[in-house]
Amino acid sequence: MIKRLASCIREYKKSSILAPIFIVMEVVMEVIIPILMANLIDYGIDAGNMGYIYKMGLFLVFSSAIALLFGVLSGRSAAVASAGFAKNLRKDMYYNVQNFSFSNIDKFSTASIVTRLTTDVTNVQNAYQMIIRLAFRCPVMLILSVVMALKISPQLSLIYAGCIPVLGFGLFFIMSKAHPIFERVFKKYDKLNNVVQENLHGIRVVKSFVREEREIEKFDAISEEIYKDFSKAEKILSFNAPIMQFCAYTCMIVIAWFGARMVIASGNNPAIGFTTGQLMSLVTYTMQILMSLMMLSMVFVMIVISRASAERIVELLDETSDLTNGNNPIEEVKDGSIEFKNVQFGYSKNKEKRCLRDINVSIQSGETVGIIGGTGSSKTSFVQLIPRLYDVVEGELLVGGVNVKFYDLEALRNQVAMVLQKNVLFSGTIKENLRWGNEHATDEELIHACKLAQAHDFVTLFPKGYDTYIEQGGSNVSGGQKQRLCIARALLKKPKILILDDSTSAVDTKTDALIRKAFLEEIPDTTKIIIAQRVSSIQDADKIIVLDEGEINAIGTHEQLLETCEIYREVYESQVKAVAQ
Predict the structure, then answer these.
(1) 3-state DSSP call for residue 533?
(2) What 3-state class would DSSP assign to 236?
(3) Backbone phi, then psi, for 360, in 5-degree steps?
(4) What is the pLDDT of residues 248-287, one digit of tens each?
């Protein structure tokens, strides 16, 4: 885990190295200061030597200024390194998500990915900043202070050894109890984000059904769970500071007691050789040890909190797409022919839960194919296999006479345009959204694609035309307008295969017919696969595939299926009667 996270430091290695170097230099200067003060007292104040006092005073001012300079440089370097580290983490996670297949995306919820990119990265960033500063400062300060204390009085310094078992046991107890709670908390953060995202996404439905109170209750419930877990974890972590303070202040009291007795005894017996200045410096070193332990406890708490976040981040970074290019992938799709050979597919490894079974069908390049079937008959799953959004579990799927697994993924998907069942437009102008299909498309090509998709007329009615701004998710256009813009976007790819997954459901039958007519006249060589609920949308297709519970029930033309397929005939008759009534 540490090695994986460290790979994200990259160009910020220099700042990450300079921060601890500067902090060590600061600590060295701070450790020297008590010695200078001891000499000032013993050889200056007690001896009444003003020249020595001035000399030591200048050294103290110089040492403090140098310590301040190194502290500022360390803080700046740590801030740059931690912010850059967090930037690289988010960047690597986001880039990795872009390479995920649909099955990878199914594994992580949207809310979970958002939490990992925000809260978890912030926790790791804070921990990293503390590690490259305080995690170096505290041990160095602790070691140097103890060494200097031993040099002053080995006997009194033995008092520190009595605190080590107490501190070790306390830290082990806290870590073993707190870490599992934080792991649980961050999973609940995913649920919290999911509740908020779901509420905002469906705010119109919530308000139309007057369910605001129910949504507030859901939010309060998950918030209460997070509060309880965090409170429990913080109660455990709260033992950290008292244990540290108890050990440090106990050392200070004991040292002050025995040290004072040694100073008095030294006055009566100079052979003892323990001065007031030495006692004062020993107390100062004890304070430095105390502060080191306190800061170390803060680092420890942050590491405990961030450990769970780091594990979640690495989990996302290490996730690899199960759809990859093979050796020497094919870069060109010959034509738009499609062939399914004994294809089986399922979203889980359980053979009993296959959603497509024994699929055998051949589609010639340039054909128009309709797909119809009841809800849950796996129509969308069927077409998602063609651009290799998922891999078949068994059998073969050929495009242009070649198994889709042998193609370069980008090359294959550039030749397969798919208008999904759930249409998505992004915030930006209409031109910017259309150019997702072809970023180099000219204005004339945009207009031509929109005319084919029957979108040009309504676009020109907007005051700004093709420069009209589309709100996030396309909230300022109707469902039918959104569908036609998405079709135009797909046409700009000039694909060999065009898949419309129920993407004319929100347009009227006249517009639907005009779109199909334009396809027939303008892109006759493109293979067109149309999933529809309306028979009128596919009745002129070269062939129609009827799916039923993941299996092909029948294949034929409209007239053939009316005679031979009971499912198709029932759908047709029900729609004809509905229109007649």
Answers:
(1) coil
(2) helix
(3) -130, 115
(4) 778 778 877 877 777 777 655 554 566 777 777 777 777 7
